[in-house]
């Protein structure tokens, strides 16, 4: 009888442990820190600022102090220096270095949010 009791108890414990481990976290478990992965030197990007297109610089709200270009799913903003992103050489065009961002010009120029420049690694649509 002891063997049967032990077998039933073991099966119950194993079943309960499996049931607990398959449920979603309830938020009480410790968070595992994210370790940054070493990145390889940048050789190029899929979407780059177009230097050979017939487009003018757009100005948000018709203000000359709010320049941008929309291309390839990104808002491109001009900077006077080429060292905003480490390891990335921006396109120099029309007297400025151009950097891509997903942040809309309204947020950058009116709400004064950081443009959060990023590497344009993959083409994205306008609705993202």
What are the SSEs and their pairings?
Blueprint (H helix, E strand, L loop, with lengths): L1 H21 L35 E2 L7 E5 L2 E6 L11 E3 L2 E6 L3 H6 L18
Antiparallel strand pairs: 1-2, 2-3, 3-5, 4-5
Describe this structure in words.
The protein has 128 residues and is of the alpha+beta class. It has a domain at 58-110. The chain has two helices and five strands. Strand 2 (67-71) and strand 3 form a beta hairpin. The longest helix has 21 residues, at 2-22. The protein is globular, with a radius of gyration of 26 Å.
Keywords, separated by commas or semicolons:
globular; 128 residues; alpha+beta
Summary of the model, kept short:
The chain is of the alpha+beta class and about 130 residues long. The chain has helices at about 1-20, 105-110, and strands at about 60, 65-70, 75-80, 90-95, 95-100. The N and C termini lie far apart (about 65 Å).
Distinct helical segment count = 2
Low-confidence segments, given as residue ranges, are: 16-25, 32-43
Largest sheet, strands/sense/barrel: 5 strands, antiparallel
**Whole-number mean pLDDT:** 71
Measured by DSSP, the beta-strand proportion falls in 15-25%
According to DSSP, the number of beta strands is: 5
């Amino acid at each position: 009888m002891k063997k049967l009791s032990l077998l039933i108890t073991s099966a119950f414990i194993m079943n309960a442990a499996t049931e607990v481990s398959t449920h979603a976290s309830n938020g009480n478990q410790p968070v595992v820190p994210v370790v940054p992965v070493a990145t390889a030197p940048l050789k190029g990007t899929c979407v780059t600022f177009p230097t050979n297109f017939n487009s003018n610089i757009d100005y948000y709200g018709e203000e000359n102090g709010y320049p941008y270009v929309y291309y390839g799913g990104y808002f491109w903003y001009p900077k006077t220096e080429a060292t905003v992103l480490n390891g990335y050489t921006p396109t120099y065009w029309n007297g400025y270095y151009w950097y891509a961002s997903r942040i809309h010009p309204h947020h950058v120029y009116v709400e004064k949010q950081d443009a959060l420049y990023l590497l344009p690694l993959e083409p994205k649509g306008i609705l993202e």
